[in-house]
Design brief:
The protein is of the alpha+beta class. Helices cover 18% and strands 34% of the residues.
């Protein structure tokens, strides 16, 4: 029995709508472009919108790298109430009538910049005893979570009206913006939760280059037309230098052989291409310019 779908290779920068899970966005897009193999690069909460890079075919080999990438978000915090999920989807647990000024809000932001510690929320996909924390949370079970160190590179106030604050924040992997909102609210003594969250950057990828899901979901489009929004399978590797090989060297690399003195690069990962400009995969170049196969794409025999 053959595989379902076509062997599509490429990367889709999707602008995920609110209310859709990342996995559902991936599966729907995969069906809409009729692709065999697909993977995403780290989830966005259903309530969040914004940049969700999706990888298809050979590009999935490199999608895991984005799990480690820095992220940038625009977040709207509602002041005066905490919720059990730390966002607007949860139940209010604490409230405050305290009024906070813009100056007071901005004054605490430096405390949440740099390397900080966060306690992961109960409503998260972290595993505990083989179960997701959010499954335990829904049953009313709370378990002890240990603080984790994360880094907030930039934290800037965009707008403030006393009741809501919009921030722009760039963070390391594993940072929970919901927890950041809750922690800021508690530090101010006023409580807070996330009202809106939009991811604008993942590594070097930007929301400006993303396509809205509604465009991909346009029923008038064919799978082939939707594939026109795909970037190349090497799109996730653009920050790496390139190595171009002639036909003989490319054939040897495909066979898993290392290539002595084949590059002018030194001590770096690189993306390798054959004589036709087709991606071969990621290679490692040592101090002598020898090219070592690292993560090559799969070649059909």
């Amino acid at each position: 029995m053959g595989k379902k779908g076509d062997p599509v290779d490429g990367v889709m920068l999707l602008d995920k709508p609110e209310g859709m899970s990342s996995n559902w966005a991936l599966q729907l897009t995969r069906r809409l472009i009729n692709a065999q193999k697909a993977g995403h690069t780290g989830t966005l909460d259903p309530m969040a919108t914004g940049l969700l890079p999706l990888a298809f075919g050979n590009a999935t080999k490199y999608s895991a790298d984005l799990l480690k990438a820095d992220k940038r978000y625009r977040a709207v915090l509602t002041l005066g109430a905490a919720t059990d999920t730390m966002d607007k989807t949860g139940t209010v647990t604490e409230t405050s009538d305290k009024v906070v000024t813009r100056e007071a809000f901005e004054a605490v932001l430096p405390e949440f910049t740099g390397v900080i510690e966060q306690v992961p929320p109960m409503y998260s996909a972290i595993k505990f005893g083989g179960k997701n924390l959010y499954d335990l949370a829904r049953k009313g079970v709370e378990v002890e979570r240990h603080p984790r160190k994360v880094e907030v590179y930039e934290l800037k106030l965009i707008s403030f009206d006393g009741r809501r604050a919009e921030i722009d924040v760039k963070v390391s992997k594993g940072t929970y913006i919901r927890v950041l909102a809750d922690d800021i609210g508690r530090r101010l003594g006023v409580f807070a939760h996330l009202e809106a969250l939009r991811r604008t950057e993942v590594g070097s990828l930007k929301i400006e280059d993303a396509v809205p899901f509604a465009v991909i979901d346009d029923k008038a489009k064919t799978p082939e037309e939707r594939r026109g929004y795909l970037k190349g399978a090497d799109f996730l590797l653009q920050t790496l230098p390139a190595v171009h090989l002639d036909a003989a060297l490319a054939a040897r690399l495909r066979n898993g052989q290392r290539l002595a003195h084949a590059s002018k690069l030194r001590n770096t990962d690189a993306r390798a291409y054959d004589e036709r400009g087709a991606l071969l995969g990621v290679v490692k170049v040592d101090e002598r310019g020898t090219v070592h196969p690292s993560r090559l794409i799969r070649f059909e025999q």
